[in-house]
Amino acid sequence: MSFYYKLFVCVTTVHCVSSRILQDTTLNVSEIVWMPELPIRPQQSLGSPSVLHPKGTNHILASHDFFPGAPEGGVNIFMSNDGGIEWTNVFNVSSIYWANLFEYNGSVYLMGTTGDLRAPNNSVRLARSQDGGLTWTSPAAVIVPATPGANFHGGPQPTVLQNGQLHRVMELYGTDIHAGELAPVMLVSKRGCENLLESACWIVSPPLVWDEHKQGASSHRTWEEGCAIAWPNGTIQVLMRMDVDPANPTHTTGWANKAALLDWDSEKLSFNSYIDFPAGPSKFVVRYDEVTQYFYSITNNVTSVAHTNMRNVLTLARSQDLRNWAIVKLLLYDDSGLTYNDSMRLTAFTYVDFHFDKDDIIYTIRSTYRGAGSSNRYLFKRETN
Q1: Which residues contact 40 (CB under 8 A, 6 or more apart)?
Q2: Are strands 30-34 and 45-52 parallel, antiparallel or unpaired?
Q3: What is the distance between the alpha carbons of residues 320 and 358, in angstroms, rounded to a whole number?
Q4: Concatenated DSSP letters for 189-210?
Q5: Cβ-based neighbour number of residue 68 at 10 Å
Q6: pTM > 0.85: yes or no
Q7: pLDDT tens-digit profile of 42-63?
Q8: Distances (CA, A) of 113 to 191, 356, 360, 379
Q9: How does pLDDT run across 174-184, given as a tens digit for each residue?
Q10: What is the rounded CA–CA span in Å between residue 205 and residue 170?
Q11: What would the 3-class secondary structure string for 107-153 be?
């Protein structure tokens, strides 16, 4: 048994305090997990939140991993039978990281990577549950990097269904990519392929390598954690998070609230344009709501040029064309009483995943809040109206 596996079990069975309405706050959030900092691994944090209400069920699923993990990761699956108030850890899926929950043909899936960028030839992995998330298969390696030394990278980004095919964006990092850059690729399931755990069901697009001269990107570091977005007309576009270095003024100037819009032509990704987007250098998800006919995202809007990596405010934004965005509601903010600068430094609501659940929005949050250390609190909230 590896050291990481021992720690994973120890954390989930002993050191994690879970399942309650968070007290002493005005934010009306449920705490799925709180993990105190451990002397054995003081920097261990909760990462990669994902949420799903499987169709035809009365329960909600939530998942997370740990970072920084060992080269090979693991994901905890939680279940709530009361709409998101109380949660139970029902399963631990080993050897998968940066994973998202999604549904396909009556089964629930986790799609991620073997581990972080330290994993040799980090592959894309898929695990399946056929009982609504209670039990899971061992993750299957469905895509292996074609170039030795290359790795797949990505947050828990959405896997979306369009025209009978599943689509998810990841990035390639390694010997075939320019130094220090992440090159987005589209992972696509073959039409009519039913056993998603077979590698023959998946294809990978060529990487879109950063072209600084063509795309005018010299003032920031790279892009990452792309989000595939399905249009109601059958097309797909991608929004990429802009990653900046807060310590380098040339990276942050003018890039506080930006994203890169990419096009997908069913074979390859191509650069479209940079857009104003209220997310700063933070991971986000975009989903289309058929009722209102808007695209929505829950984001960390940057309101201070002195704190371009701020994550202590969470907002709901919407757009009809993916280019023009408006903030429509403040969702979460720091009510802990910290000073302005301490709040910027010590509070974060980030890496949100969300879904529309009838008239509500349900979402999970990786959080640094009210005494929790670096992302050691995993929260759930249901937004009504």
Answers
A1: 7
A2: unpaired
A3: 20
A4: EPTT---TTSGGGEEEPPP---
A5: 13
A6: yes
A7: 567 889 999 999 999 999 999 9
A8: 22, 26, 31, 23
A9: 766 666 678 89
A10: 10
A11: EEEEEEECCCCCCCCCCEEEEEECCCCCCCCCCEEEECCCCCCCEEE
